[in-house]
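haha ok so turns out i had the wrong file open the whole time. this is the CORRECT one, sorry everyone. sequence first:
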Amino acid sequence: MSERKTHAAQIDPTRRAPLSGDQGWPPGVTRPGARAAHTVVALVAGAGYLLAGALNAAGAYGPQPEVEGNVYGDNADGLAGAFGRLADHVSYFTEWSNAVVALAFGLLALRPGLVTQARRVLLLSSLLMITVTAIVYRVLLAPTQVVEGWSVLTNPWQHVLVPVLAVGVWLVWGPRDWVTLRLVPWALVIPTLWIAWALIRGLIVGSYPYGFIDARTYGYAAVFTTIGAILAFALVLAILFWAIDALLRRRQGAGATP
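then structure:
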């Protein structure tokens, strides 16, 4: 390698350590089956997203129980309400998080040796978003939600199975050395875009994906207080994922420290 190429490799901001083959792990620390594991996560998350979307568009979930405030669900039955139900579907944070997981792990499966800052941010975003989805659902939504019909399948699929699978596969197969503190703020970009989308769409259509973001009922001050608390929690989660990655990297002999 020429002197110029060597210097370029040292300052390349998209790579922090050379990776080994298809596993996306530093030299000497390979995990057989990483590509297959990442593929499973991508397929399960993607299939859940598409299934829930198809069921929503078809009206298979049936009429939503009446709830206080202005939340999604006030769509016409049958074909007339298909577009509205589908638009609501793609506006839930649950669906955004499952889609980001499918994309992040799908890219790992397709190009496991390619390391870029965008892919590292996407992976961290997917981990914290799907974890927030699981926790917020369990704490804020599940206690008041009636689960019946197709929801018996899709609710645990998207709120329990995908979070456990995504975080579990990352813990076992990595890739390691992808999470750094300087990427943490960037990992909040997609969640922030969802907040903007939910509030702007809510202002237009008069309804919101969740009661805790219902600005028409509770006012923007209360909504932003709740959102701020959730974002702060997400920030703590992102830092926790960095700490876990650093700990596992040291234990697995990866060597480099952020």
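The chain is about 65% helix and 0% strand.
again sry for the mixup
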